[in-house]
Design goal:
Layout lengths: L1 H18 L5 H19 L4 H13 L10 H10 L21 H96 L3 H31 L3 H10 L6 E6 L7 H21 L4 E8 L3 E8 L11 H12 L3 E7 L2 E9 L2
Parallel strand pairs: 1-2
Antiparallel strand pairs: 2-3, 3-5, 4-5
Helix pairs in contact: 1-2, 1-4, 1-5, 2-3, 3-4, 4-5, 5-6, 6-8, 7-8, 8-9
Length: about 350
């Protein structure tokens, strides 16, 4: 749009030069012809046709001197084509210079100077806009990259906090188990010994009550310790540790979208099946890829472990397969083993606790 407005300004100066002509028809024909050519050049920018049109109109200056009055408009187009020399044939007007008035020559030369000034102003402005656009895009890309890095950093911080929480839970569980649990156990033994050696019937009932209280406290402590331990199990981290021990000939992928609120017994079942499945794959599979997928659904959890080794049959009597089946059935779940020429698949489904 800026280029069109600038060309209109140059055109007005050129028309002023043409208006000084004695004829009426010839200036109109020349103006309309050059305007049509310039419009075509605007549409064909960057092509050989645009260059040919500028060169052709420039050559006409030697035949029809009035075309020289419109040469500034062609000069502006030539500058945008990066071929200013295309208007050089316009110098042929010197052969018939007497047919133009001094006023027309002065106005035309001034119009050429204006065309050059406008071109450098507009081209500089466009270069600035282009650089600013590139800078804006670069800044937008940097901001997007920074945003993604911040997300990764926040996720890493959350993971560190989660791991620190799990470690603290484990520490508390160990402290309770090693200290309080042992003292309660010793108290239970002492109360039992007192009951055995006690000869006073009046003390028997209080001692029995004391032993019952200590036994209840021991049960409560044991349940609390188990709950803390189960909650502190990071399923993904444990499975990743298991993957780290697999033979290097295997490429193992893990896709786990289970939440952190999975019951501890289900986590232990999943970990046990994954360990056994990886061990069997390393021992018996002739493949090189293992895929582990864990999915959480509203009513149940699913585990699929698959390798790409060929396997035509399995022996259900294997201890490993029996252990996996027992783990699943203990939680009310189901597990299947599917051998094929494309690989061996373990699929387990366990209801949510």
């Amino acid at each position: 749009m800026n280029r069109i407005i600038d060309k209109l300004a140059i055109l007005l100066i050129c028309l002023t030069s043409l208006a000084l002509s004695d004829s009426f028809t010839a200036p109109v024909v020349v103006a309309l012809s050059v305007i049509a050519v310039s419009s075509g050049i605007q549409l064909l920018t960057g092509t050989v046709y645009a260059s040919a049109a500028i060169l052709g109109c420039s050559l006409l200056c030697g035949i029809y001197p009035l075309f020289f009055c419109m040469l500034p408009l062609l000069l502006y187009d030539a500058l945008w084509e990066k071929k200013w020399w295309l208007i050089a044939p316009g110098a042929l007007v010197l052969l018939r210079l007497k047919e133009l008035s001094a006023g027309q020559l002065i106005i035309t030369l001034c119009a050429m100077a204006v065309a050059v000034i406008i071109y450098f102003r507009v081209s500089g402005l466009e270069d600035t806009v282009r650089r600013l656009t590139l800078l804006r895009d670069e800044i937008a890309g940097k901001n997007r990259q920074l945003y993604e890095q911040n997300l990764l950093l926040a996720e890493a911080q959350d993971n560190e906090i989660h791991l620190a929480t799990l470690r603290e839970r484990n520490r508390i569980a160990r402290e309770i188990h090693d200290n309080v649990g042992h003292m309660l156990t010793r108290s239970l033994l002492q109360s039992g010994a007192l009951i055995v050696i006690n000869k006073d019937e009046e003390l028997r009932e209080p001692l029995e009550s004391l032993r019952g209280t200590l036994d209840s406290a021991m049960t409560s402590i044991r349940e609390s310790v188990h709950d803390l331990h189960d909650d502190s199990i990071d399923l993904r981290r444990v499975i990743e540790d298991c993957i780290g021990t697999v033979d290097s000939r295997f490429t193992v992928t893990l896709d786990c979208d289970a939440g952190e609120h999975m019951a501890g017994e289900i986590k232990l079942c999943m970990i046990g099946v994954v360990k056994e499945g990886l061990s069997n794959a390393v021992k018996h599979s002739n493949g090189d890829k293992i895929s582990i997928v864990i999915r959480e659904h509203p009513a149940f959890y699913q585990l699929m472990l698959e390798d790409n080794g060929s396997c035509s049959e399995i022996r259900e009597s294997g201890i490993g397969l029996k252990n996996m089946r027992d783990r699943a059935e203990a939680l009310g779940g189901r597990i299947t083993f599917t051998p094929s020429e494309k690989g061996f698949r373990i699929f387990m489904s366990v209801p949510r606790a």
